[in-house]
Every structure is written in C-alpha cells, then in structure tokens.
Design brief:
Four copies of one chain form a homotetramer.
Chain A: H1 2-14, H2 18-35, H3 42-47, E1 50-54, E2 57-63, H4 77-94, E3 100-111, E4 120-130, E5 134-142, E6 148-160
Antiparallel strand pairs in A: 1-2, 2-4, 3-6, 4-5, 5-6
C-alpha cells in the first residue's frame, strides 16, 4: 500500500498548482500534529485549530485558506459551524465535573457577513446557562480584521462519560 | 518546495498507523478529483461528496470515516452542518434563474442520534418556501442504516450573481 | 370590586368601535370556556384554540382576528410561536407514558409569508424524533387559504411529571 | 349587541373566582389603553407591555400573571416569543431610516429556566448586526429576580414601508 501512496503523491505533486502545493503542505503539517498527538482528531489537525480556554470562555481559531472555502472563495458556512460547535463543546465539557460529558443537541447560526480574505477566523464562545442537564452557549465568529462574520447559539445535553 | 513535501510525506508514511494510511489514501483520492475538476473545492473533495439533484430535492452523501470524526469517534456536528448547508445551497441555487445566487443567512440543526459506524451519511433536503428574496429549506441526515441523525432548517437570501 | 368592574365595562362599551365590540365578544366567549373548564388556561381560551390530536400528529387552530395582530395587521410572530409551541407540547406530552411530561428547550421559527386576512390559522406538527430524554418536533402554520405562513422546529426535554 | 355583551359580562362576573376577577380587571385595564391609543394593538394592551428604547437597546416588560400562563402555571413559551419578537421588532425598526420597516424572518429561542412567580418578566435585546437588507438581534428574558429565563436570536429583513 505504501508504494502505491508514494506513486499517488508523486502524481499529485506533478500536477500541482501553487495553490495545490500550499494546501498539500498545510494538510501534512496538520497531519503530523495528529501523529504526534498534538491534535486529537484528523479534523482538528486538518483545520489547524488553536484554542484558548478559561473557566467561562473558549476561543478556537483556524487559518482562512482555500482548504475551507466554498465555491464563492469564502469560508464554508458549515466550517463556521465546525468552529463554533468545537469551541462550545470544549467549554461545555470543561465546565462539567469529572465523570460527565456533553453532546450538542441544537446549533443555530446566523451568517451576517463574508470573512475578509486571509488571516485567521476566530470563534469566541461563552456560557449563557449551565444547568444540571442542559448547557446553553452563545458565540460569535470574527475575521482577522475583527469584523463579525456569524453569531451562534448551541444547546448541549449533559451525559455520564464513559 | 516539492523536495520538502516529499520528505514530509515520507516521514508521515513512515510513522503511519493503518488508520493513518487509510486517511492519507482517502484524502489523496479526493485531492485528485479536485485536480481533475471533478470536484470544485478542496473541502468537497476531501469529504468525497456525492450529490443527487432534482428540481425540488438534493441529496449529498459522504463516507463516515475517522476523517470527519470528533473525539467521541462519531461524525462532528459541524461536518453534519457542512453536509446540510451544501445540499441546501445546491438546491437553493438550482431553483434560481440565471443571474441569481443565494447565500445562507441562518442554519439551525437538531442532533438526535449518533451515526452508526461506517458506511455513508446522507443529507436530504427539500424546498419549504421559495420567495423572491428568501428561500427556506428543510432537511435531514441519515446514517447508512437509514436512521435519523439530525434535522435542519436553512434560510437563504437571494442575491445577484457575479 | 365587582361594582367597579361593571363601571369599567360600561365605560369600555360606551367608547367601543365595532372592532372593539367584536373583540370584547370574542374574548368573553373564550373566558366562558375557561370558566366551564372547556379550556384549561386563560391564554388558550382567549385565543379560542381548537385542537385535533392523533398518536403522531397535532393540529391547533385559532381565528385570525385583530386580537392577535401586530401593527401591520397580520398575526404577531410571537402568537405563531404560541400556536406551534402549544401544538408541539400537546403532541410531545401525548407521546409520553404516565408519569412523564415535557418542557420546551428550543423553538425556532422561520416566517415565510403573511397570513391572508380572516379565517383561521392552523399549526400542524409531527414527531421527528422521540428519544428517552429528548423529543424533536417539526411543524408548519398555514392560513385559511392553505398557504404556508411559517415553519418551525421544537426541542423538548422529558421530565418526571408531578 | 351591547345588551347581549352586558348579559354575558354579568354571567361571567357572577361565576368568577378571585383569579377570574383579577384577570378581568387586568384585561379591561389594558383594553382601555388600546381605546385611548396608549397601546397600538389589542395584543400589547392585553399583555400590558411597557417599553424602554434607546438607539441600540430595547426592553419590553409584562406582568407575570395567570393571563400568560400555560398548564404548568409558568409563562407560556410562546408568550416569551411574543416578548422577544416585539422588543426586537421595535429596535430593528427604530434603527432604520424613514421609509423602511422590517419583518421577522427567523426567531430562535432557548428556554433555560421557569420564571419565578409574580412580578414582571423582561425581554432585553440589542443589535448584533445591522446590514442594508438584514438585521440580526439577540436578547434575553429575565424574571423579576433577575434570573435568566430564555435567550433568543432574531433575523429581520428590511423592506420599504408603506
């Protein structure tokens, strides 16, 4: 299988545009972070997620590159959902005692403007309500110019963790 | 740059688990589809999106692999948003006359069950309202066993296309 | 207190427009239904709610009169929420075994068109997901011409009933 | 018709519980405000809405009485939607130049706790995004103890006013 992968990689690089090469490099850089356990999932590694976490706030940032773009060359609305859901999930779980985890039950996002090209986009979330069985968080996404791109609200359900 | 990419790829393959190798293969297969213009974005290529489209229905499917999993080893809620938003956007744009496009203004998703392991997950969406300036679509995501994973509603705003 | 109420009622009737008189009559008709226990709340009585309920479907209808209008003389968006939430709550509770009730955790409504004047407006809801701890319902509101006015999704949380 | 209304009112008062009498009094007090044009709609009059409005903030309050209760004797979730949608609509319209109005396209509410008995409940909303064609507002509802009852997000579409 490995020989086949090298041939495939060779073919891809041979045909690669400069944009292709940048995406390849970006993706492999992320993949190495997954292999070194710096990242926990292929998804977060591929997106190069960086996080800041405090007791009542979480920020998750990713670079705004063609890797996440839709056909309009702006970040795909679903990727903004990945960003918000990740930040909310991190903060929700962080707020729970040992032995409990949380799962998303509802996520609602309003998209208000396209992100400016380049830089990073940042999801910033806070706790709006922390109940015994449900947690509600709100957040927003800003581009590298600090402009508001989207706002969102997430509901999480508390479950015993395995 | 290319020599550096080969070294990096070599290092990744040397350290790769079987799961890593499967993800590498899957990702490069998708990348080739982007290079051959079978896929229009790196995102849809990486996710191996397949679509079925009629006048009032769109289905988008992707394989359920670790490439899209969260730390619970199930599809990330944000990826389900990517799937729904993509299917809704395709159908919304398809419903418009030449010279018009649509952008998502709101996406709301209810997550009701984890997807069964393996197979594909499928977003199926239909038009609920098609106005002159706004379009509303509803949809659901099912796993390969046909079980409901999530439902969603999207609002789109109609704009002149460039 | 009763004498004061009669004086007040006298003053209101003396100054009443034909629309005022119709509203007064409508409201008192509803109030009598609350007094005779045909209606369980002042709110449902004032709105003259009528319901149709089966195992997996609930319809709640109310007359479309100035009693529920906003300043644009169409049904207030919040009243459409009352209608949907009521129909969803009835169906959610009906689906539960004795000893359990449900409370709304999230309600999301898309408003797609103003209701035609007159007649009744009808909320029709169905179960999308019935879990052990959460229930998700979807529904729509139509006017007396059968045109779609709004669609909505509600999440309910199951609790032991008192 | 007026004679008939008096007979009906007499019958209602004869059978009225103390709670009934309080509701009758409350409702007629509101009705008089509609007749004197202090209130613009039967709905806002019946609910005894009071508002505070600045350039970027609106608060709407109503008394928490059985008039708005569901069968659990707490404010009906739909009435909280009336409150939020009203406050959001007032602020959205206030933010627009002469010749423009706004209509709600989406309202999403998360219910997080029941309101404490008595007092008033207060919806407080602010502008999150003000575009040329769309406005997004967020808000919360608190009870008279200052506890959070619900949070909500509304999307409005800007239209020429008549």
């Amino acid at each position: 299988m490995k020989a086949q992968l090298f041939t495939q990689f060779q073919n891809i690089v041979d045909r690669a545009s400069n944009e292709d090469l940048a995406i390849l490099s970006q993706w492999m850089n992320g993949f190495e972070k997954k292999q070194s356990n710096e990242m926990t999932t292929y998804l977060s590694a591929g997106l190069h997620m960086e996080r800041t976490l405090t007791a009542d706030y979480c920020r998750v940032s990713i670079p705004n590159t063609p890797y996440i773009h839709n056909t309009l060359n702006i970040p795909h609305g679903g990727i903004l959902a990945v960003l918000l859901d990740t930040a909310m999930g991190i903060l929700a779980n962080h707020s729970l005692p040992v032995g409990f985890a949380s799962v998303t039950t509802n996520l609602s996002i309003n998209y208000v403007a396209p992100a400016a090209a380049g830089g990073h986009i940042h999801a910033q979330v806070t706790l709006s309500h922390k109940g015994r069985q449900t947690i509600v968080l709100t957040g927003e996404i800003k581009d590298h110019l600090g402009r508001l791109i989207a706002i969102g609200t997430g509901s999480f359900f508390v479950i015993p963790s395995k």
